[in-house]
Amino acid sequence: MLTVPNFGLWYDFRYSCNTSVSREQSYKDHLEHIIAAEALGFDSIWLTEHHFQTDGYTPSPLVIAAAIGAATKRLRIGTNLALLPLYDPVRLAEDAATLSLLTEGRFDLGVGAGYVEREYAVFGRNLKHRPSLMEEGISIIRQAWSGQPVNLKGKRFTVNELMVRPIPERPPRLLMGAVAPVAIERAARLADGFLDSGGIGQDHYLQSLAAAGQRSDQAAIFCGCWDIVCEAPERARTELGPCLLRQMRSYQSMGAFPGSIIQTAEQAIELGFYRFLTPEQMSDAVYQQVCRYPQTKDIHFWGRFPGEHAASALRRVELLSRSVLPDVRQKLQAVPSGLLGPNQTAS
After folding, report:
1. pTM to 2 decimal places
2. What is the distance between the alpha carbons of residues 263 and 269, in angstroms, rounded to a whole number?
3. Whole-angstrom Cα distance, residue 115 to residue 125?
4. What is the DSSP letter of 216?
5. For residue range 162-208, what is the model confidence (pLDDT) as tens digits?
6. Containing H/E element for 46?
7. Beta bridge partners of 224
8. What span, in angstroms and rounded, lies between the C-alpha atoms of 126 and 133?
9. E strands within 21-173?
């Protein structure tokens, strides 16, 4: 049979600026949602990061990861993604090692370069230095987790014979997200796996691994999925439209999706950022992803959109748990291992 990936949920912990729900209550609602997801059989939780957003888009994913670790027993917890160039890599290595120990090895550190110039400026970084900040940051983190002294003399950091503690007993997987081809090639070369968003870059990641002399079975793809499961697509488009537009406008205000002018939720849907799928359609889409890319280790869906009511988000998560994930798992277990591979599809 094909290896069944983990199935997870993706959170940015935004709160709604237009309701009477307090920020404290919003965080509590998110944590309760995640505890419920564990009980419903999900395998992983993923956290993302941005700064200075009016809706509270979380700037502190590792802090939230610690809270999730304390509130759950089984879920893997990862970042998709943390903005590595904004951190001191020694401190990030310390925090991630501590998280790994606190969660008994359930934490994965996913990183990326980011793209928001204001974030870089506030934290004293230069956007043009992203490649060297990424390369040197990865090197320092790996050395720090090895238990040996960290030594690096680079363009951005100099570290001499520094012993970093604690040492994680089970070092986190060090994953990397990217969109631009050169950044995807860096992920293939340096990371333990590739974080994609919306399916972008999977083929180039596998091609880059091959170019680096690595086998396809060494690949690991972690999919951030933007598809939305629903029983009545038209009704769901209407109900979730304001939340999706809020999400798109927020990303565009930070400089994402250049060249796309999105003024309505319908435009975002028509441009392909979101698909509304029935449980049967979602099951088929997930199944085809894993058959086409058996290197898929995790697929995670947005757990809650900005401004979405907690009850609405929970209904969607329950629908995934009840009507999609069991069907996908059963289908994949019936496929002989090695029958399918990259760029192949199952009927």
Report:
1. 0.95
2. 11
3. 12
4. G
5. 999 999 999 999 999 999 999 999 999 999 999 999 999 999 999 99
6. strand 44-47
7. 197, 300
8. 9
9. 44-47, 76-79, 82-83, 107-112, 150-153, 158-162
